[in-house]
Design a protein that fits this description.
By secondary structure, the protein is an alpha+beta fold. The chain has helices at 2-31, 64-84, 90-113, 134-163, and strands at 37-41, 45-52, 116-124, 127-128. It has one domain. 64% of the residues lie in helices and 15% in strands. Strands 1-2-3-4 form a 4-stranded antiparallel beta sheet. Helix 1 runs parallel beside helix 3, helix 2 (64-84) packs antiparallel against helix 3 and helix 3 (90-113) runs antiparallel to helix 4 (134-163). The protein starts with a helix and ends with a helix.
């Protein structure tokens, strides 16, 4: 029963984050004109609507079949990794779910529009960071959570080895 409850929690997180990603992209698509930029925190953060046919920094622009293939591989790998993870690895599992959600969010855009809708635009210490979206953020947060758990496990092993 506990495993089913935990699994339903992760399904809920997946659905909520995917819906938030798609809703945010829908709102930007319908409220902001393409290439329009609306300053939220002047000089630091703007909502700027862009369409990306590639990956980060527009790498591999227009290579949709490549992205479909990579997404399929990622979905299978994430599913396998989630299944292999232990229930006590909560940050890892949550990270996998967030990565999965972000991956599917951008996949939906690529499938429906042949581009990804981006809109989060930051200038950090004078560097105009590439425009991104909620799905990209979910992927980064998911990776971060997995790294935190891995580092914590390594630290626990290190402490254990020092005490013996």
């Amino acid at each position: 029963m506990k495993q089913k409850k935990e699994f339903l929690f992760y399904v809920f997180v997946f659905l909520m984050t995917l819906c938030f990603d798609q809703w945010s992209k829908y709102m930007v698509d319908h409220k902001i004109m393409l290439h329009q930029s609306i300053p939220v925190i002047p000089g630091f953060f703007s909502l700027t609507y862009a369409r990306n046919t590639g990956a980060a920094w527009s790498m591999l622009e227009g290579k949709m079949m490549f992205f479909y293939g990579i997404t399929l591989i990622a979905v299978v790998a994430l599913g396998y990794y989630f299944k292999q993870s232990q229930s006590h690895e909560k940050l890892t599992r949550l990270g996998i779910v967030l990565i999965f959600s972000g991956t599917i969010g951008n996949f939906i855009d690529r499938l429906c529009f042949q581009y990804v809708r981006d809109f989060l635009d930051f200038v950090i210490f004078g560097y105009d960071f590439p425009i991104f979206n909620i799905a990209d953020s979910l992927i980064c947060i998911g990776v971060f959570l997995m790294i935190v758990e891995l580092m914590n496990e390594e630290h626990q092993w290190w402490k254990l080895s020092k005490s013996s």
